[in-house]
Amino acid sequence: MIKSNFKQKSDGLLLCTRYAFMPNRLKYCGGDHNQELFHYEVAGQTDPGLAHLLQEFETLFPYLKMIAQSNHIDDPFDRRVVEAYWIGNELLEKIHQQNLYTHLSEGLKLKKKLSLPQFQSLMGAVNPNSLPHHNFHVFNIWLNNKNLPLTSIIQTLDSCRISSGKIISIADTELEVTTSTLAVENEKIVIQSPITKKITYKLLGQSFIPTPKINDIITIHWNFACDIISETRQRQLDFYTRQSLSR
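RE: above sequence
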């Protein structure tokens, strides 16, 4: 297996924390550790304790393990693996459809958690275009498991997915950005033209992006600014988001 050096591991843990923090704070994923996660991130420090906290995320960590194993990388928190799941990169392209199916049925234990009809319906979301990206899970696995009308939860899906936006103004605790939104058309999820929206970027006077600038591109999770990314990374995120909607 390809071994990760310390910097890749440290960078990967912190990158993962940026995206895992807000759903943890909202009590959607992981243990009750949002204060610890926030402290690790703003301090820029890692240790085995941070890895342990992230391993408690029942959905996130199995995805990271599967991506890593499929690419012969020994560390699930290698930065490349973490980026593949949250943003999207070439590691996703090396994962066979059968591996994803096995991950969903055995890694996430969906076969045991659901009735046979529910499980079979859920597996209908897996197709040749399916890749183990966070937004795939949101648009397909989470959504199908809820069995609710799209129109009633489209805002939740929009918040839960990883999106991006360009900063157009900066206030004390918020950033104003141009960003795309989701809508429902003909009973399908579509990506609409960009709108202007305010995003929280500071909590208790601290931020994951302490020095944002106008025209910076940020990633967004649950209306919180996670990271500053390049135009290349933004294109990757957009590509894998649209791929996740392709059924």
